[in-house]
Specification:
alpha/beta; 6-stranded parallel sheet
Length: about 200
């Protein structure tokens, strides 16, 4: 799970990586069928290495890094609460375009810093999570892309992946790790006051 404790939100390769992984598996099966097990095992090593690097990046920021949440409704505020409770970040930054929502976030003490400035809010962030509607991911990504630092982890909480990936990838800097995700959780409530730290338990 992203940052290790969000429930069933799984680490996932990008859309292009998923296609590549299918190709790896197909080639691996072909080599195994041909009796070349050594070559077959070697094929998966690049994938393992790539994910190990991301895991190491996550391990390095837990409890000490900056977590930025963009859009703080039910899911975003629940992430803020569990991150605070589990000490998953040293600093939590909340970004929201609504002044009213920003006031609620501040009143609920969900973040250490609350802003409506997207570029400034992601600056120096180790992990950035898009908690905005699926259709808004592209425009938000365009705003934050130039300000994302090298090695930052970018994720989302959208209920679909293809539409989000197609919006994000055109603006995704090569130095940023993109990890599409799904919270597999939710309620009929909305807004920063609707979230709770146990939303992702047993998910």
């Amino acid at each position: 799970a992203l940052l290790g404790t969000w429930g069933s939100t799984q680490w996932a390769p990008s859309w292009a990586d998923q296609i590549s992984e299918k190709a790896y598996r197909a080639e691996q099966e072909r080599l195994v069928a041909a009796g070349d097990a050594v070559a077959a095992n070697a094929l998966v090593k690049p994938r393992a290495k790539e994910y190990t690097q991301i895991w190491l990046a996550v391990g390095a920021i837990v409890g000490t890094g900056i977590l930025t949440l963009i859009g703080v409704g039910l899911i975003g505020s629940s992430l803020a609460r569990v991150a605070r409770r589990q000490n998953l970040a040293k600093t939590i930054v909340a970004i929201d375009s609504s002044e009213e929502t920003r006031k609620k976030i501040a009143a609920l003490q969900l973040a250490d810093r609350v802003t409506g400035d997207y570029a400034d809010g992601v600056k120096n962030a180790d992990c950035v999570i898009l908690c905005v509607p699926v259709g808004a991911c592209g425009s938000v990504m365009e705003k934050i892309a130039p300000s994302l630092k090298a090695g930052a982890i970018l994720s989302d909480v959208g209920s679909v992946k293809g539409a989000i990936v197609s919006q994000i990838e055109p603006h995704l800097p090569k130095h940023v790790h993109f990890v599409p995700a799904h919270p597999v959780a939710g309620t009929e409530q909305s807004g920063p006051e609707a979230g709770f730290a146990t939303l992702f338990n047993n998910r």
